[in-house]
Amino acid sequence: MTTLSxxxxxxxxxxxxxxxxxxxxLAFGTLVAMICGSFTDPGDGHGPPAFGARTPExxxxxxxxxxxxxxxxxxxRPMQVLAVTAALAAVEYVLMxxxxxxxxxxxxxxxxxxxxxxxxxxxxxxLLTMGGLTAAAMVFGSTPWYSQENxxxxxxxxxxxxxxxxxxxxxxxxxxxxERAERAERTREEEARRRVAEERLRIARDLHDVxxxxxxxxxxxxxxxxxxxxxxxxQAKEALAHVRDASRSALxxxxxxxxxxxxxxxxxxxxxxxxxxxxxGELVTTFRNAxxxxxxxxxxxxERLPAAVDLAAYRVIQxxxxxxxxxxxxxxxxxxxxxxxxxxxxxxxxxxxxGSAGRRPGTGPGDSSPGDxxxxxxxxxxxxxxxxxVTALGGALTAGPRYGGGFRVHAxxxxxxxxxxxxRPGTAGGTGLRR
Length: 435
Known about the structure:
Helix content is 58%, strand content 9%. By secondary structure, the protein is an alpha+beta fold. Strand 6 (396-401) and strand 7 form a beta hairpin. The radius of gyration is 43 Å and the shape is rod-shaped. It starts with a helix and ends in a 21-residue tail after the last strand.
């Protein structure tokens, strides 16, 4: 039984892949059925049909062969095949008595037309074919017009049209389901690519913020050490210690960020939480050790911030202070404030620097002019990165020179971040910090 079913499935697949061969087989089977039917006499309706009671005329055999041969092209020329088979059936009804079942080819052709055209066309063509052949059978036949053979023509042609319309509707339904599934698959792939691009952009921002901040501090402290190495070795040792601490912090944060790119099965990534306002004091201390006086004012108490908002606030402060240290000039001071206002958090970084216009971050789209070699953000992407980070959370960032000198960075972050990122303990508790 298994062998028989598998052989039938293979034959079915072969016929589906070779439609012309299938149509030729169907045409041959239809011809055999019509010839067998032409030897059958239906009788007077009170007894069973008698096979061999009559013999078809040569002309009827020719019409049956032509109508069957036309079915080979039923997929390529459905309307033409229907017209040819209907004409041959009508000729058979007009000239031969009793007629041979040439109408069987017309039934198959009408089914093909109804399954491959739209519904209005199928209804119009079907009604015309049904009416024409039924009228020919009733008018030119020797039997009474109300005989079952005449109404059988009407019934079989009508059944062929209805079956073809049903098959067309089911095929359209299956195609619509398949199209929706393919569209949903494309949508999922596009969403996955979009999320991957957003994650890459977020990681790139984190790498920029981490590397720019710490390398800028290392650059400053190394310059201090080189300047005082001969005259004040104790201060040079202290500067080198700050260089070591800053480089260690940079390596740790890089390890955490790159750990996000690990695949399943890789060694376990570090579990240290992302930085936030809870460690703002440590960040400020690194700048104070680098020679930049920083004053911090944060609102006491308040609810814990979402992890994404907390990280964004920290990165904005880090980048802004890095720019102050690089561009504000000697003797500059900075002020940092974090205030909760309703459903938002406002982060402000001010400085009173007197740096040259060509080296201030507010003079262009980035945070410095091209050719500035003081840090890794000299390509002009610092403020752009801050703005993108804040905008991604639904907030707004403004940056520009202050009246009377200095620079101001002001970010407004919504407490409910759009990213939907879950809160991570230990990263948002710094809103109560005061320095």
